Amino acid sequence: MSSIQDENNTGAAGITAADTKTTDFDRSRRDALVNELVELVGGDSDSYDGRLVGEMLKTSLRLVSDGHDTGQLKLMNSAVKEMRYAYKVFNQYTTTRKVTIFGSARTPDEHPDYIAAREFSRLMAQHEWMSITGAGGGIMKAGHEGPQREASFGLSIRLPFETTANEVIEGDPKLINFRYFFTRKLMFMSHADAVTVCPGGFGTQDELFESLTLVQTGKSNIVPVVLLAGEGHGYWEYWLNYIEKNLLESGMISPEDMHLFYLAKSPADAVEHTLNFYRVYHSSRYVGPSLVIRLNHSISSEQLMQLNDEFPMLVRSGKMELSNALEGERDHLELPRLVFEHHRHKYGRLRQLIDRVNTFAYIKSEN
Predict the structure, then answer these.
(1) Lowest CB count within 10 Å: 119, 257, 295, 333, which one?
(2) What is the mean pLDDT of residues 330-352?
């Protein structure tokens, strides 16, 4: 089914008074004007992307008579503006892998956590990764100091007590200012090929649990989520004890969910774990009912059989198969694929599948 929802298929709860009063003639005239606007700015109103832009214009026009107050309109307007601008900035770096770094803004420069975050981000930059973090002090500044500004994004949030960016990222075009936490967190996750979390307070824990929730529920790509602290620190051990005693043992999470994160022993260990995630695994996406896992190199028939034997719980019907790019795919068409019909849950098990694939030695393509 197309992701573009027809305005007449919104359900009873989605029908407004304005919708019921709009005649077919009015709707046709509005659609023609919207298409003309799309064409006027250089778009193709008949293309899929052009239709998506047209749908956004129509949605905005419906706000006129929906009964929204000024505060709601201001929120929606600011949110869309923030997302548009942030995507514009990030889209200039789509071919470079990025790690999002979370942690406390209060961590002093000489603290072991600060030193660990700086070293981790420095090592990742040596492997040509870019860092995404906040624009303030503490761990955010450490995440910029490691790679320096050329390989850093700063996502600033407007707060009464945090109004300026740190000196590493200040003035850089990759510094993006946000009014809302939800648009900022969207950018942290939607552009992350990995997430590394250092000790922090409420905000850091919120970001960590949201990252894990998005991965656990399939609302974001599976990425390595690494927990990192400086030497002589029991922060993550205490956190892990809480997770095991209060969530795992009580059945509030599944045993496989414990595979969605990794407690690193050192910055170098965090780097190794992150890079190993992409050793054979490249990326994934859904094409219809099928999960398409793109691989950096092919796997053998024996290795494919091993995956089918070990992970049948992930397959809704049929079995895992090797494939070339499927019809409708547009990215990384040259890469081999592992394809199967996934039931879209048990993402902890899916993470284990990816880990297993990454243990496979290079096999020359059999095609």
Answers:
(1) 333
(2) 95
Is the model's pLDDT at 17 over the cut of 60? no
Q: Taking a C-beta distance cutoff of 8 angstroms, is the pair 336, 308 a contact? A: no
- 43-63 confidence digits (pLDDT tens): 999 999 999 999 999 999 999
Domain extent at residue 186 = 90-276
Nearest to 94 by CA among 190, 172, 3, 178: 190
Q: What angle do CA 308, 309, 312 make, to 5 degrees?
A: 65
Give the percent of the chain with pLDDT over 70: 91
Q: Report the chain's mean pLDDT, rounded to a whole number.
A: 92
Question: In which order are the strands placed within the sheet that holds 337-342?
Answer: 281-287, 290-295, 337-342, 315-323
Task: Please check whether residue 85 lies inside any domain of the structure.
Answer: no
270 and 307 fall within a common domain = no
209: CATH = 3.40.50.450
pLDDT in tens, 139-155: 999 999 999 999 999 99
What are the φ/ψ torsions at residue 134 (nearest 5 degrees)?
-70, 180
